[in-house]
# Entry
Amino acid sequence: MDKANNHPYDELLAAYAAGSLPLSQALCVSAHLEHCVACGQKLQNLNRVGSQLMQQLKPAAASQQLKQRLLDSLDDLTDAASQREASKVDPAVPRCLRQFIDHNYDDLPWKRVSADIHSVELCRDSNGAKVELLKIKPGGSATTHTHLGDEYTVILEGSFSDEAGLYRQGDFMVKTAADRHTPVATKDRVCICLAVTEGPIQFTGFISRLLNPFIRRSYA
Ligand SMILES: [Zn+2]
# Structure
């Protein structure tokens, strides 16, 4: 259950607790929380401190509205998720993603990105960020790439490694536009990740440069 070694940084968790994260990033934090007891405890502490502060401070109307909007969105997700739960969604699918998935990952309309990668878009955030699942075949490579914006990734199934190390189920990572990395799935099984990208991924390898126009087009 609690295998994650890479966690959302504290400011992100605090923003999640305050309800001020965009829905796309909140989905990533929420998916991580389903695998991480340590962050769940941190969140409980933040919520406790938050409610104490709320009693002492008169919150600005704008931040109250923001929080209510996110809570409403998450409520919608939870409602949809509990309806689905009554049906037959694979319990391996995080609860926060069940509104997008009828049965399991296999049934999704995966699209081929390269010989090693398939993807399926789950939704777009109101800020334009793309929320998708990526499936990397065993031993497959996502080729070297950079991003035009930040990229948030949570590993849902399997594992992959890049220049920084090995990432396993539940691991949460953020790559900025300055980061360049080459994720390679471990050979034992398929790797499925939840990925939020704020701008199209920019492949930097020679052959994969040919992919860039297609990737950019998918954001149009
Ligand atoms: Zn954690």
Remarks:
- The pocket of zinc ion is lined by residues 4, 7, 32, 36, 38-39 (CB under 6 Å).
